[in-house]
Amino acid sequence: MSWKDIFSPKNIFEVTQDDQAWVEECFENLMNAFGYPTIPADIQWSEKYFPSSYNTLITEPELVLDDLCSLLDQDKKRFEIVLIEDLRDSGLDYAYEGNIFEAEVVIGKDRHIIHLANSVISNPNRLVYILAKELIVFTLQDRFANYDKKEDESLLAYIAAIWFGFGTVFGNNLVYHGFETSLESTTSWVNHAVMPPQVFGYALAYMEKLVFQSMYSFKGDVGRYYKSAVRYLEQKDVRLVNKQEHDALEFAHLSYDASEEHDWERARELALKALFQTQDIYLQSDLNNCIGYSWLMNRDYDKAIGYFERALELNIGNAFALDNMGFSYLQLGDLELGRSFIEKAISTSGNDEGYSYRNLALYYWKKGDLVTAGSHFQKAIKHKGMKVDLLDELYQKFIAEFDVK
Fold first, then answer.
1. Considering the chain, what is the average pLDDT of its residues?
2. What is the CA angle 384-390-393, rounded to 5?
3. Closest Cα to residue 337, out of 347, 346, 325, 320?
4. For a surface tag, which of 50, 169, 313, 319 has the fewest beta carbons within 10 Å of its beta carbon?
């Protein structure tokens, strides 16, 4: 043993059986709501994850919110930020006790207001953490009918943050040090989260166990607790670990990648392998939609519809399957039925607007309303989401016909 080993801090595993059981219960609840976890992205403040806001000279909270809504699959139009000024913005000396206000979401009928402390926006890492936490809490409230924000917010939200890929962001904010100085005064503070670092470290290690991959690198207390938890779990059989579901997700991701490359035969083959492995009905729904979409892109709309129907039997709210069903019926000439599916997709708020605009453009084009069709084509073209398949091809044909008329 070297001198360095003798004087290194001890890595003692300090998570009680009750806390271990609580972490497992949290992951089980998330799994029941969202399916078996994929390997989460290790989201950090960078241009990769925050393309709209990272390069702004002064941090713009609305742009940060845009990026976070994309990462958490939330509709940005449902949220509005209202900045709150307080003594921290006055330049005066002040003192406070307890947790200082940083953010709070007020839920409205159609629009939700995020009240945000103005003093936070100068620190992008803290801003990302605060807004991500509020959106994650909102997601939990939206998904779990019995979720009590006041009781559970600062606990389950941290486990959910790991689930959604914000493990590093939250881990680095378990203890928040602040320091400000001026000619008149110096202010410093330390803000401790209610999530104990040893429990958070254990949850990080637990997530890695579920997805069969090491992901995190932490320093300080969180790093020590996380590493000790990794060693502890190496010797344990974790009840929730499911290699079959993990393999199904691997096949599913490979299928989605093949779809991105328009290799439709391979996409179908991999999706079928994933279907054979998984018991997750939501994943089964997505995979049936993926197979149906491959047939749609091969213009075999009757065969595609069969898979979209199966996708919707498994998950009636599968917006992509609804949109694809609508497109298929439009191509088969059943315009009103096609439009009804597109409208259902839009009503879920889980649709991709670019595809919905494209599909509505096709509907109005086939109805002979070229002006409205052109308007919807323009909306699809200007949409900032994913690239819309067949949009360029359809638009060029539309322009040719429009010019003739």
1. 87
2. 110
3. 325
4. 313
pTM, whole model, 2 decimals?
0.76
- C-alpha distances (whole Å) from 110 to each of 95, 126, 137 are 38, 28, 17
Residue type, 391: L
Q: How far apart are CA 383 and CA 362, in angstroms?
A: 16
Q: How many CB atoms lie within 10 A of CB 273?
A: 18
Among 173, 167, 275, 166, smallest CA distance to 229 is for 167
Task: Give the residue with greater pLDDT, 203 vs 153.
Answer: 203
DSSP string over 169-218:
HHHTTSEEEEEEE-SS-EEEEEEE-SS-HHHHHHHHHHHHHHHT------
For residue 293, the one-letter residue type is Y
* pLDDT, position 255: 96
Dihedral sign of CA atoms 313, 319, 321, 326 in order = positive
Q: How far is CA 368 from CA 323, 324, 362, 374, in A?
A: 21, 22, 10, 11
Angstrom distance (rounded) from CA 348 to CA 124: 32
Residue 177 β-bridge partners? 190
